[in-house]
Each structure stands twice: as C-alpha cells, then as structure tokens.
Amino acid sequence: MCIFSLLQWITEKNNLKGPDVFSSKNLAIQAQKKILSKIASKTVASMLIDDTSSEIFDELYKVTKEHTRNKKEAHKIMKDLIKVAIKIGILYRNNQFNQEEIVTVEKFRKKLNQTAMTIISFYEVEYTFDKNVLSKLLHECKDLVHELVQRHLTPRTHGRINHVFNHFADVEFLSTLYSLDGSCRPNLKRICEGIHKLLDENVL
C-alpha cells in the first residue's frame, strides 16, 4: 500500500468522526495499525508521535479551534500536520534522504530547537513576546521542510506544509495564543510544559 493511499484512508476514517472529535494519538494509532498490517515494519511504530507530542498537538488543536472559530478547519490543520510528519518520518526511517538532505535535516532540527526555546521563553518571561520574531522562526522552519522534501513529495503535500505553517506563524494567531488575559493561556502553559519535556529528553 502506498503512503498516499494510507493518508487517504486516514482522512476517510477521521471524516466519519466529524470535526467535533479530535485526538492526535488516535489518528496516529490508526495510521500505525494500517501501516503495520500492510508492510509489517517494526520501525514504523517508533516513528509515530509519542505521548508528549500528542498532548501538545491536542492543545494546538484546541487553541486553533478557539482562534478560527471553525472546528472543521482546526481539524484539517492538525490532520495535515500529522500527515506531513508521518511522510517525513517514513522517508527518514527508510534512509531516503541523500547527504545534502541529511544536512537539511540537521538545519531543521537546530531551527526547531531554537523555535521551541523561544516559545518557552516568551511564555515564561512576561512582556518579552514578539509575534514577528516567532513568526519569522516558524516560516524559516517551513522553508527548511519544503527544501527537505522537495525531491520526494507532491505539490499537494507542499500545500499541506504551507497550510500548517502559515496558520501557526500567523501573527494574529500568535497574539491570541500569547494574550496574557486570553482564554488560551492555560493551553499555552500545557504546550510549554510538553515542549520542556521534549527538550529535556533531547527530542527537540
């Protein structure tokens, strides 16, 4: 079964649930079961999102839904994020990146680490939040992802990458997320706690 058929199956499966129900962990588990049943790859399970990342994704869904006031769109953004992550994970685990692309992987990891620490710093130190700085970092991450998968994935996937990063890098979304008296503050706290844990475990 090709990866594109798999991702079509994921979409159809989740559409049955409707936009009111979202769990990144359930989505990953469904993908894992489908992949394992077709290609019996033991490496796939370790590729899929861990519990901490899943919790972060779930909080991102909540704040996205709050900001967009659109459950269907929030659901689609998070599904696109998970689809892209799974595709890149499969490419990486199956050694599909050439030496030049491996260099890009390392650049992306460093940029993602920098972005993660900036997200936490802006939360922990009051009045340091700069929406333009964080937006720029996220767009730089987006450019590196495009560069990484240019040789491997379709224009449709590049569109999903844009859909995800353009949303999270949107300065209005970031302003909503970091509002000191906004309703997303508890979600941001849990997101930062999860990122802290991933940094401590050297995942980021």
Topology:
Blueprint lengths: L2 H13 L8 H16 L2 H6 L3 H18 L2 H23 L5 H26 L6 H19 L5 H14 L2 H8 L6 H16 L4
Helix pairs in contact: 1-2, 4-5, 4-10, 5-8, 6-7, 6-10, 7-8, 7-9
> Unreliable stretches, pLDDT < 50, 5 or more residues?
1-19, 35-47
Give the fraction of residues assigned to helices. Answer: over 70%
Query: Between the first and last Cα atoms, what is the distance in angstroms?
Result: 31 Å
DSSP strand (E) fraction?
A: under 5%
Biggest pleated-sheet summary: none
How does the overall form come out from the CA principal axes? globular
Number of helices: 10
Rg, please? 17 Å
Number of strands: 0
Oligomer: single chain
The topology string of helices and strands comes to HHHHHHHHHH
Mean pLDDT: 83
Structural class comes to mainly alpha
Walk me through what this model shows.
With 204 residues, this protein is mainly α. 78% of the residues lie in helices and 0% in strands. The chain is built from ten helices and no strands. It has helices at residues 3-15, 24-39, 42-47, 51-68, 71-93, 99-124, 131-149, 155-168, 171-178, 185-200. Helix 6 (99-124) packs antiparallel against helix 7 (131-149), helix 6 crosses helix 10 and helix 7 runs antiparallel to helix 8 (155-168). The longest helix has 26 residues, at 99-124. It is globular. The model is unreliable at 1-19 and 35-47 (pLDDT under 50).
